[in-house]
Specification:
mainly alpha
């Protein structure tokens, strides 16, 4: 209801639009955190392979670390796309 005359107001308020924009930006920050984490896994694996190439156990750990880095990256992109779709649907519903 509109505060001024008691009529229903279907248009989203400025506060609602700003909240949706904050949510979208939070989703962008989250994907960047997933990318940063996976890059840290890749860098760790590269260091293990480069500096400890004679140690077979550390080499295996490095390849496992690469695997986890890929899993984190895939999960991050999946989560980002899913959230982006949900946000877009909510924004479309509030506009109409």
């Amino acid at each position: 209801m509109d505060r001024n005359n008691g009529a229903l107001n279907d248009a989203p308020s400025v506060g609602d639009l700003l909240a949706m924009e904050r949510t979208r930006l939070a989703n962008d920050r989250t994907i960047l955190a997933y990318i940063r984490t996976s890059l840290a896994f890749f860098a760790t694996a590269a260091a293990l392979i480069e500096f400890f190439d004679q140690n077979r156990k550390l080499e295996i750990i490095a390849y496992i670390t690469i695997f986890f880095g890929v899993v984190i990256l895939i999960f991050g992109f999946y989560s980002y796309c899913r959230s982006k779709k949900l946000i877009k649907n909510v924004m479309r519903n509030t506009e109409s």
